[in-house]
UniProtKB/TrEMBL annotation, chain A:
The lineage of its organism: Eukaryota, Viridiplantae, Streptophyta, Embryophyta, Tracheophyta. It comes from Cephalotus follicularis. It holds the Pfam family Peptidase_S24. Belongs to the peptidase S26B family. This is Signal peptidase complex catalytic subunit SEC11. GO terms for biological process: signal peptide processing. It is found in: Endoplasmic reticulum membrane. Residues 80-175 form the Peptidase S24/S26A/S26B/S26C domain.
Automatic annotation (TrEMBL), chain B:
It is found in: Endoplasmic reticulum membrane. Keywords: Endoplasmic reticulum, Membrane, Signal, Signal-anchor, Transmembrane, Transmembrane helix. Its main location: endoplasmic reticulum. It is a single-pass type II membrane protein. InterPro entries: SPC3 (IPR007653). It comes from the Eukaryota. This is Signal peptidase complex subunit 3. Belongs to the SPCS3 family. The keyword Membrane applies. GO terms for biological process: protein targeting to ER; signal peptide processing. PANTHER family: MICROSOMAL SIGNAL PEPTIDASE 23 KD SUBUNIT SPC22/23, SIGNAL PEPTIDASE COMPLEX SUBUNIT 3B.
Length: 212, 167
């Protein structure tokens, strides 16, 4: 009868078993170094190496996220390719907390499109529907009027003083797709910034303390 | 490798991926639908037609709008936003689109309808070009899905004309 021996293992030594495929890096190194007669403290250098690896991993994750985001900006042609619906002015179609995917193409703005625009001097983008378009001959420059589906009046009161129409320069993009509820995370983080800090530090902690 | 944290993380990632995938599939299924909508608009009366104090022409009209948009609804449709726009050309503007009426259709049952209404929004021109103007009334619809891609189309009904004189 063939009995299978599990080789004894401790931090410093492994009874060599050619059949056992996985061996901790620590253990190999220790074995070869002691065999070579070197007197390096293996534990300390391994810890430094591990933390460096964690740091590089963190850096890779952050830069990958950044690359994806910038890539999206390039592909959609919008400064912010995804926006969160903040108000109820487009209900029942878009509720507060939904997210909208934006795209800006060269096609001229037409009535009925849902656009995201910034009023001069305003910092919060507004998502409303185009109800009037007046496009000049030749230059194709257009005056646009918008209104929220759930509002009774058009957006002229929201525009800057004396401004009756929106122009292409005010428009950030067209809404082409949407996902419900996903935006609540952003709303919570904006309205209670402490959640943002807690989340980011938790994430950092998780990555640093993970063993692989 | 088997701690609670790892398992929770793996579960959450998997759940989010599956949900995103399901939303994408739901949206793609909308492409299988081949709609056949129909509509008719009758202008019953031009109530008045004036040049306003701000210098622009304005029209008030009463219309009969009837439509059957039931074939546009799929299981992934949340609502249909429809509007009627008067579309015309003027010497200064290559295209003018003015929405005169809109509605939200929340379900398939409401999508076959008939309504007698005056224009919900003011039909105001940029200028005084409306006398005798020939225009189209276009019924646009925007399908707003439960998740995914929104799409829109329209039905152009040409051949309407405004009176030659103010009244």
């Amino acid at each position: 009868k063939c009995q299978n021996h599990k080789p004894k293992q401790s931090l410093g030594f492994t009874y060599a078993s050619p059949f056992k495929k996985t061996e901790a890096k620590t253990e190999i190194r220790t074995e070869t170094e002691t065999e070579m007669g070197l007197n390096i403290n293996p534990i300390k250098s391994t810890k430094i190496r591990q933390s460096l690896e964690q740091l590089v991993l963190l850096g890779i994750i952050v830069t990958t996220a950044l690359m994806i985001w910038q890539g999206l900006i390039y592909v959609t042609g919008c400064e912010s390719p995804v926006v969160v619906v903040l108000s109820g002015s487009m209900e029942p179609g878009f509720q507060r907390g939904d997210i909208l995917f934006l795209h800006m193409s060269k096609h001229p703005i037409r009535a009925g499109e849902i656009i995201v625009f910034n009023v001069e001097g305003g910092d919060i983008p507004i998502v409303h529907r185009v109800i009037e378009v007046h496009e000049l001959q030749d230059t194709r420059v257009a005056d646009v009027l918008t209104k929220g589906d759930n509002n009774d009046v058009d957006d002229r009161i929201l525009y800057a003083h004396g401004q009756d129409w929106l122009q292409q320069s005010h428009i950030m993009g067209r809404a082409v797709g949407f996902l419900p509820y996903v935006g609540w995370v952003t709303i919570l983080m904006t309205e209670k910034p402490i959640i943002k800090y807690v989340l980011v530090s938790l994430l950092g902690l998780l990555i640093i303390t993970s063993k692989d | 490798m088997h701690s609670f944290g790892y398992r929770a993380n793996a579960l959450l990632t998997f759940a989010v991926t599956i949900l995103a995938f399901m939303c994408a599939i739901a949206s793609l299924s909308d492409n299988l639908n081949s709609p056949s909508p129909s509509a008719e608009i009758q202008i019953l009366n031009i109530n008045w037609f004036q040049k306003q104090t701000h210098g622009n022409d304005e029209v008030s009209l009463t219309m009969n709008i009837s439509a059957d948009l039931q074939s546009l609804f799929t299981w992934n449709t949340k609502q249909l936003f429809i509007f009627v726009a008067a579309e015309y050309e003027t010497p200064s503007n290559a295209l003018n689109q003015v929405s005169v009426w809109d509605a939200i259709i929340p379900s398939k049952e409401h999508a076959k309808f008939w309504i007698h209404t005056s224009n919900k929004y003011r039909f105001v021109d940029q200028g005084n070009n409306l006398r005798g103007k020939e225009f189209n009334l276009t019924l646009h619809w925007h399908v707003m899905p439960k998740t995914g891609k929104m799409f829109a189309d329209k039905l152009v009904m040409p051949g309407y004309r405004l009176p030659k004189e103010y009244r």
